[in-house]
Amino acid sequence: MPEAIISTQGLGFAYGSIVALRDVTLEIPPGCIGLVGANGAGKTTLLKLLLGILKPAEGAAWALGHPVPGAALAVRSRVGYMPESACLPPDQTAADFVGYAAELAGLSTRAARQRASDILGLVGLHEERFRHMGGFSTGMKQRVKLAQAIVHDPDLVLLDEPTAGLDPEGREEMLQLIGRLEGFGINALVSSHVLTDIERTCRWVVMLDGGGVLRSGPLTDISATDEVAVEVLDDPGPLAAALEAAGAAVQVLGRTVVVRVGVADPFDMVRDALADTGAAVRRLGPRRTTLEDVYLRGGGDD
Amino acid sequence: MTEGVVYDLGYRRHEGERMGRAAATRALYRDGLRRVLGLRRRARAKVLPWSLLAVAVLPASGFIGLAVFTRDLGIQGVEFFSHAQYFDLTGVIALLFVAIAAGELLVPDRAHGVLQVYASRPLTAGDYLLGRAAGLATVVFGFMELPHLVLFLGRGPGSPDGFGSYAAANAGILWQTSLSCLGYLAALAPPALLFAAYARRPALASGPFVGVMLLLSLATRALVEQGDLRVFALFDLRQHPAVVKDWIMGNPGRWGEYGRAGFGPWVSLLVIGLVALTAAYLLVRRYRRPA
Prior knowledge:
CATH class of the largest domain in chain A: Alpha Beta
Oligomer: heterodimer
Largest sheet of chain B: none
Number of helices of chain B: 11
CATH architecture of the largest domain in chain A: 3-Layer(aba) Sandwich
């Protein structure tokens, strides 16, 4: 695994008597990383701990190689943060605010103005950049929030529920923007409770539940199963029966027959069963589970 | 004829310098100046600060106009407000101005969630408060000193000895008014910022602050008039900068019930300092607590 951009060791935090995070140990590689979990799972708390806004009650954390909160200022100069809740003054123009956000990260006034203009163009707000943000739609506000998070060219950006409140079109556009970040050289930690958003944009997933880590690993590993799925065009009964007769453990889901990988090669077994029954195949391949399945199963098998 | 071509430059990395906390604090300061004066904001944000500034400066301009007019008519020895008396006007307006400005500086950041953006930047809570307080100090100082500059520069040309002689003879008044302005600033700004740090709307910061200051004055007056309760004169926070101002400008005996209570300007300075330090401590405590 490449050098971790975020590491935590036994990290814990509590709001009074309410435990928000407990014993969180992570090694997160560069790239676009998903942080998933239900509301209250501890996602936002983890982001605030990584920014040094909150101090851990126990354990330690490092972002971009710096300890937080010890070197929080050094971390923040190279990290961007897009909060979930509102953070935009309604009486300021987008260009003024994003430029100001860049200056707050240490950029000169001239560079800040230039980058604000460039980044607002990048997020699709070039025409609206001189409008006061009080009149912006939710989608436009989310774009400005993303723009202020990346205007100072961070190495890592923490995105807290970036698609919250967006309509399907706005959500699609936001996901496309997030998908482009890695190409810009910006690593992203995307917090969301919408699992399909993470599946679409991220290569690595951290699953939180009740303040603890449920799973952390590459999306391909998490979603992979030891099953083969065969979807047929007509009745799957004969195929399922043939497979069972050959000794396979099968499950029928609609027109799909799921074959649990056993001792024999399941693909050979399926091929023979298809030849015997004459069933017409629509789709054949390893069965991939969704993050939702993994989450509902409580983290999978390991 | 060549046709225009649009190139998508895409994302470009920032190769320039990153100037750190000091530059970020300066950005906060400049933003504070703009916000207090309503610059780069909607027109309605400009109405209050510029109206108050006009109310503070117009009498000085009017006096100068009248001085020129009476001189042209050959009327000699016409004297208008002195600099010390002018503070009686600007002191009251400054109370309103500071109350409004402090609310505008701190409340919207919290009400609109902008503090989250500050928290993600290389800034401490102290940097934030320093930038904001410096912005407030600059604007309030300018607001209070500008009418005196107008008076000073306006009286000079009307002087029988000419501007140069007038300026040389009266230059001391400029540092006296400047020091007096600092006294008002130190007395009013820290408690105003403290009120703003806890309010949910700018009006809910400025209204209670002005109300408390006026109530303290009224209550203090009533208590001091009882004779035995002179220590309560110390709680008239509006009176202290006026006492210091009169002391600086060599104008004792105008200290009202405070003077009658027997306290001097050093006590006022001490009270101003104590109130400012307490307010600063509470402000830092308030902003160190994560949202």
